[in-house]
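Notes, p. 3: input format for complexes.
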Amino acid sequence: MWWQDAVVYQIYPRSFQDSNGDGVGDLAGIESRLDHLAWLGVDALWLSPIYPSPLADFGYDVSDYTDVDPIFGTLEDFDALVDAAGERGLRVLLDIVPCHTSIEHPWFRDHPDWYIWRDEPNNWLSAFGGSAWSERDGRYYLHSFYPEQPDLDWRNPEVVAAMQDVFRFWLDRGVAGYRLDAIDRLMKDPELRDDPPAIEPFGLPLTEEEAKLAHLYSGNAPDTGEALARIREACGDAFLVGEIYLPSAKWQPYLEHLDAAFAFELLFSPWAAEPLRQAIITTTRAPGAAWVLSNHDFGRLATRFGAENARAAAMLLLTLPGASFLYQGDEIAQREGPEGESRHDRAGRDRFRHPMQWTADPKGGFTTGEPWLPVVDPVRHNVEEQRDDPGSMLSLVRRLIELRRRLGSGLRLLDAAAGVIAYARGEYLVALNTTAERQPAPEVLGDVELETHPDALKEGKLAPRAGVVARALG
Ligand code: GLC
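Output follows (474 residues plus alpha-D-glucopyranose):
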């Protein structure tokens, strides 16, 4: 299976590379940057949504699943991108949004029975706050996210058939798989019962409002597997990774049909050895964890864990067994941007989505026009300069991806000093110091193959915030 230990690079198409000077990234721009991805050594790229969209949720509100939004290009551009990627040994994954459409999708007008309606709202909450129900012509439709994103009824066979066609459409055009958006919200209680008050913590971060309820009925219904089986039926052996916003203990029914699930417990762990270790233990109880430390929703690696920990965090991400997902710009430790005056995303996620910084140019080489979101700090972080610098984050990430191919299968956690997380991958050992002080390194570390900083391992001690991949002694 090609995806087994793959590195998948997440592209946020609006912000990767603009080719026509309109300030918004596009498919031709992505194609022009494929050599960067091939040089970096990743296996696949995942494109956040490229479909026509009124942009209430920046593409996650789809108004036509089988076309490309003109801002990104055309279907021909897409085909050209898939071909050009293939020539470089890169696979293309799409982001698919099966839970809801845009309210402007013709289905909402032509097939209201494909959606979920109620005479009065129940107590379910939208992930973005407030009731999950909005009124239309005297009735209420369900939207697990923004009101512009009505939820599809996957118990309606016509919906299933229509979405199966969508999955097949892009597979026929050469995509290697899908990231399934918000898949834990696919199936809801058929009786639409109220969610009861929470009696135990959910296990992943929730808003204060959400944390008051146990999300027993508003998602993750017992027949989710039946819907996923229909998705799998349409997708054959394509790679399917689920965005399942549930603790990993609840993945099992999903992983009967999907290949992998994003390991949110690790993403939300503080940068400290013990919670990281616990998150790895929890999420690797069953196979299927896909590792991700940053994305367009939750922020950038170098900001979330602190710039001083970015190198060790990249080492962790890229030395775990299973598919690892790298968000564009994290390979140069790009920082989050400011939350600007002109808020594009109402949920406040613009700061995770600023343009990719290719050069030190004020526009970062991203566009010749006015970037849709400002370019943050291209002088400090850009691909061009880091490529030639053996000490750069970019060089480290590239060497990690290369070394990853030689790591053995499986993972064995090792005893280590407080503040240090250490594990074996076959003949190699990884040790990361999460603290600001020098810490004793595990004694079994042999020759260092790769280090996050010069002299990361010296006289049996790991430098602050540093990590090494070393040969195992003996
Ligand atoms: C997923 C996407 C997020 C989007 C939401 C609703 O969580 O990653 O960006 O807002 O689904 O589609």
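The chain has 14 helices and 19 strands.
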